[in-house]
Amino acid sequence: MSQERRYSFEFFPTKTEAGHEKLMAVARQLAGCNPDFFSCTYGAGGSTRDRTLNTVRQLDGEVKVPTAPHLSCVGDSKAELRSLLNTYKEAGIRRIVALRGDLPSGMGMASGELRHASDLVELIRAETGGHFHIEVAAYPEMHPQARNFEDDLRHFATKMKAGANSAITQYFFNADSYFHFVERVRRLGVEQPIVPGIMPITNYSKLARFSDACGAELPRWVRKQLEAYGDDLESIQAFGEQVVTEMCEKLLEGGAPGLHFYTLNQAEPSLAIWNNLGLPR
């Protein structure tokens, strides 16, 4: 869509038919923004593989928006990954989000042949050449399992140099953390675009739990204001919309190459930010 910037929306595959119908309706609504692509998540150890595959095919084929499946390597064999890559290639998919992934409880690290996302990127390139545009994950506030920030930066640089085309960040609420991360990895020779991941704020308790679990910092002033609203969802959403919109303005003004919205399968929160920013359609 945009020559200078790219915009995208992320969904997760649903467990019920009703949820899937809602997802498709939301996707059709967001398709009106003419995004560069959609992405669809992939459960731990491939636990949602079939639902991801079917959702990607529908989004790409019926909603007519190029769709990138997430693909994680931990817990899968190389043969399983090759088979899935061939399936996506035959379906005309041209973009993949390559991740290490998290293991389901009870699975040991020995259950997969690849240990790192950089290994998966190398496998995709070896098997499919330049067919896929490969996205990888970035963590401006450090991966929660990293030993330290310097180590995390080096791992990210390795992943990018393995053949990734671009990166999408974990969500954050402090634009400076993004700019600091980009500055540091540029010094390590990473030249590819690093697109900020954006999480609209709609529910405080869920956001706080998820942020604590994935290592995304929810600034104290934001947390305290959201706590003060209690069960007043309208105020929570209005404040959240303002906070995230202002952060996105700062990101774009500072040169971010686009935005990737974590929709949680909802249209309105992302659309509100999109409209506030006056983004193109």
Q: Which structural class best describes the helix and strand composition?
A: alpha/beta
Q: How are the strands ordered across the major sheet?
A: 1-2-3-4-5-6-7-8
Helix content: 40-55%
Tell me the fraction of residues in β-strands, as a range: 15-25%
Describe this entry's structure for a reader.
By secondary structure, the chain is α/β, with parallel strands linked by helices. 46% of the residues lie in helices and 15% in strands. The chain has ten helices and eight strands. Strands 1-2-3-4-5-6-7-8 form an eight-stranded parallel barrel, surrounded by five helices. Strand 4, helix 4 and strand 5 form a beta-alpha-beta unit. It is globular and about 50 Å long. The protein starts with 5 loop residues before the first strand and ends with a helix.
Concise synopsis of the structure shown:
By secondary structure, this protein is of the alpha/beta class. The protein has helices at residues 17-31, 49-61, 78-90, 117-128, 149-161, 175-187, 204-214, 220-228, 233-253, 268-277, and strands at residues 6-11, 37-40, 67-72, 95-99, 133-138, 166-171, 194-198, 258-262.
SSE inventory with pairings:
Blueprint: E1 6-11, H1 17-31, E2 37-40, H2 49-61, E3 67-72, H3 78-90, E4 95-99, H4 117-128, E5 133-138, H5 149-161, E6 166-171, H6 175-187, E7 194-198, H7 204-214, H8 220-228, H9 233-253, E8 258-262, H10 268-277
Parallel strand pairs: 1-2, 1-8, 2-3, 3-4, 4-5, 5-6, 6-7, 7-8
Please name the defining characteristics of this protein:
single chain; 281 residues; alpha/beta; eight-stranded parallel barrel; 10 helices; 46% helix
